[in-house]
Amino acid sequence: MYKVYFITFGCKVNQYETESLKTSFKKKGYEVSDRQDSADVVVINSCTVTEYGDNDVLSALRKVRKKLPSAVIVLTGCYPQADRKSAENLSEADIITGTKNRSEIPLLVTEYLEKHSRKISVPDYSVNDPFENLDCPSFEKNTRTFMKIQDGCNQFCTYCIIPYTRGRCRSRSLESVREEAENSARLGKKEIVLTGINLAFYGMEYGADLADAVEVCAGVDGIERIRLGSLEPEKMSDDLLERLSAVGKLCPHFHLSLQSGCNRTLRAMNRHYTSEEYFSLVQKIRQFFPECSFTTDVMVGFPDETDEDFRESVKFVQKIGFSRVHIFRYSRRKGTPADRMSNQIPEHIKTSRAAAMSKAAAQSEEKYLKSLVGKTVKVLFERENCTEFHRGYAEDYTLIKIPRENSEKSLRNELIYVTIEESRSDFCTGRIADGYSPDLMTGQ
Prior knowledge:
Elements: E1 3-8, H1 12-27, E2 31-32, E3 41-46, H2 51-67, E4 72-77, H3 78-82, H4 84-88, E5 95-97, H5 105-115, E6 119-121, E7 144-151, H6 162-166, E8 170-171, H7 174-186, E9 191-196, H8 210-218, E10 225-228, H9 238-245, E11 253-255, H10 263-269, H11 275-288, E12 293-300, H12 307-320, E13 324-329, H13 347-371, E14 376-385, E15 389-394, E16 399-403, E17 415-423, E18 428-432, H14 438-441
Parallel strand pairs: 1-2, 1-3, 3-4, 4-5, 5-6, 7-9, 9-10, 11-12, 12-13, 16-18
Antiparallel strand pairs: 7-8, 14-15, 14-17, 15-16, 17-18
Helix pairs in contact: 7-8, 8-9, 12-13
């Protein structure tokens, strides 16, 4: 039996697709291995959002070839799709595919093992491409499961290569969403994280929306929580929010992509909202979800970002009160309009701005975590942290740890009420709430 090993870079969508490929390979008689050194086949699922990501992919490819000279190496994902010519020249890869037709990869590997003929299959996208349903992943090592329900993007932000590597927006059918949710429930998963390249645009091709997918998942017995992946602000209508707020299983955590709090920079990025519109949306979401949290992505050092633009962005981040902010230094990406812009920001300025934004974000996170002390929250426990803590996530995506002495048995995949007693730099500690037993919590 051939053994296959996976290396995955990038976003939650890539992680989902890797897990789906694991299922596909198993169906073809392969064994999925946790050890690279014993693998006959290595699949590298690439990311190409930044040049740093490209470098990481290329480094991994060369290391694998050096370590496993006789292995079959598959390079798949966004990197080959973005730059097919460069990918074709990577002699270390035996099979090269893009982001289309992922389900064919096990077949391509089988053919290579029989014929030892190099294969390159990176077809272009067309406007009417359908959503590709992949095999249901098991996420064996996770308590929560991801479900990809949307692919592609129509927005064309000036810094982003993704519309070129993923094609136009396309959505999974509600019937398929239900089937995978039911499969996840059979596997004992209590939480589903809905994900996509541009999740808020789910269903736009056939008159559906994100609430339809959430409601379908909520109707599946055994699924206790539904969490949303990253969202674009411009598609979050009042009607959508009202419907989402009526779904009791939906976690009140919103990763609402910002990128910049400065309107001048947002226009240069071709983001389709202003900071005022973003703030108004946050206030509206808080009306529908009073106990919600907000996380976001912020970019610093975009071309022509002045010191004043940056200070405006920092002030806006402080104004919102995010529970967590992912901060990125702008990275030039060949093939995007931003790469051709003048007034590129020097790296040392990007670094200093990232540090300043990180400081503001840390203060915001600290304030949010302190506000939770004394509250009782429902935690889905994932794993123990060594022998000292049980750890899991509250509905608002706060990391919660409780001492092992609160419960000596494993709490993995248990939903338990916890009273928060102390906040730390990036998590909270607490104890099992009075009157609640771990054995009685699931499903309450």
